[in-house]
């Protein structure tokens, strides 16, 4: 396909678009604030960004969009979105109506995994698991270059499984916005890391500061990151035992913690049902904005 591809990342705080040429070369990128809680304005903003990009580049484009949720069925209302104004809305239909063309939608974590599997850190791998460690915890699975969506459109949603092998240090169970308690997301998201450090030290520090202080010899910050890595190892081992991916790519803000790539193999290994453990962990080739490229690649 030689047409221009436009990808849209519809986030809770920002809407980003990228235009890709035939071989994935980036031609244009724009980012604006998401209209908070206003569904109609959100649809109009996406349409406006697409039309402006096409006018600037002088050609029409295919459009794919990554969303912080999933469609209940293809073309159906959105579910499981942390941008709550999207829930129950026929977003694909409304975008297609506004843009007068077919639009392809996928979960934003799936778009992240697709981006890295197509021309990123997972290029050439048969099975890619893309992990999101950010405000929330999610994941996407790409097999043979195709997103695995699943019968219930929840493939890869490991963040809402219970944290495995919970011990006394993991109690009390933490409440999750999904209505359950003890979800992986409540231990491994960015806010969860901040909260864990606060509980143990009385200090509220962001993850980057915790990492910097740990590198400088701060024992309390080092202990916080070791607790995080141990829990992350347990949680990812459960995924590996089921999916056994060729590569795991970490995305989201916590993927910037370089120590994870050194330490995770030893943290996962004891919980993996194998005498050897060779699964590589890699940072995303396209960084924090990889997902918007994956949205464009929905038309590959």
Describe this structure in words.
It is built from nine helices and twelve strands. It is of the alpha/beta class. It has two domains: 4-113 and 288-297, Nucleotidyltransferase, domain 5; 124-283, Nucleotidyltransferase, domain 5. The strands form three sheets. A five-stranded mixed sheet has the order 3-2-1-4-7. The termini are close together. The model has no long low-confidence stretch (mean pLDDT 95).
SSE blueprint:
Blueprint (H helix, E strand, L loop, with lengths): L3 E7 L3 E7 L5 E8 L5 H19 L3 E7 L2 E2 L6 E2 L11 H9 L3 E5 H12 L7 E7 L3 E7 L2 E2 L37 H4 L1 H12 L5 H9 L3 H25 L3 E5 L7 H10 L12 E2 L7 H8 L3
Task: Considering the chains and any ligands shown, give keywords for the structure.
single chain; 300 residues; 20% strand; 5-stranded mixed beta sheet; Nucleotidyltransferase, domain 5; alpha/beta; 12 strands
- Compute the average pLDDT: 95
Question: Would you tell me the structural class of the helices and strands?
Answer: alpha/beta
Total separate domains = 2
Number of helices: 9
CATH top level label of the largest domain? Alpha Beta
Strand content: 15-25%
Number of strands: 12
Give, in order, the helices and strands: EEEHEEEHEHEEEHHHHEHEH
The spatial strand order of the largest sheet comes to 3-2-1-4-7
The CATH topology name of the largest domain reads Nucleotidyltransferase, domain 5
